[in-house]
Amino acid sequence: MTLILTVAQLAQLLTHAQAEVPNEACGLLVGNENGHVIHVLPAINIADNPTVEYLMEPHDQLRHFQAMEEAGLELLGIYHSHPSSPAYPSPTDLSMAYYPEAVYVIASLTQRESPVLRAFRILDGQISEVGFRVVPAEVV
């Protein structure tokens, strides 16, 4: 599956990531079975060490999952930022990859003016990069 985001959704994700620096930002990407993201749902990061890890606030996560189910949408991805490291899953990211069906999207902000976004599947500790596309809103 290729994840498909609109230009506006990408901007929303990156704006959230940059607003949380020096902490990691996190949230959900929900949409339809074709990989089209319908909503970017930011969450609050409550990790003990938020500069290098993320943990979604449970009420945010529950609220987002309920809204997703009520709308008949699917969890497509989980996003988070790496404020000072590359866009690649860290050992902590691997240990916290609880949703094998989700694409894990990482935004690296090591060069704040030119963020790097990459997407991965994480299955049984194995990482494989997956494609994503950014399209104008009218395409979705």
Give the gist of this structure.
The chain has 140 residues and is an alpha/beta fold. 23% of the residues lie in helices and 35% in strands.
Verbal overview:
This protein has 140 residues and is of the alpha/beta class. The chain is built from three helices and eight strands; from the N terminus they run E-H-E-E-H-E-H-E-E-E-E. The longest helix has 14 residues, at 7-20. The chain has helices spanning 7-20, 58-70, 91-95, and strands at residues 3-6, 26-31, 37-43, 74-82, 103-108, 116-123, 126-130, 132-135. The model has no long low-confidence stretch (mean pLDDT 94). It is 23% helix and 35% strand. The strands form two sheets. Strands 3-2-4-5-6-7 form a six-stranded mixed β-sheet, sandwiched between helices. Strands 1-8 form a two-stranded parallel ribbon. The protein is globular.
Task: Break the fold down into its secondary structure elements and pairings.
Layout lengths: L2 E4 H14 L5 E6 L5 E7 L14 H13 L3 E9 L8 H5 L7 E6 L7 E8 L2 E5 L1 E4 L5
Parallel strand pairs: 1-8, 4-5
Antiparallel strand pairs: 2-3, 2-4, 5-6, 6-7
Structural category is: alpha/beta
Overall residue-averaged pLDDT value:
94
* pLDDT < 50 runs, ≥5 residues: none
**Helical content band:** 10-25%
- Report the count of strand segments: 8
Radius of gyration: 14 Å
- List SSEs in N-to-C order: EHEEHEHEEEE
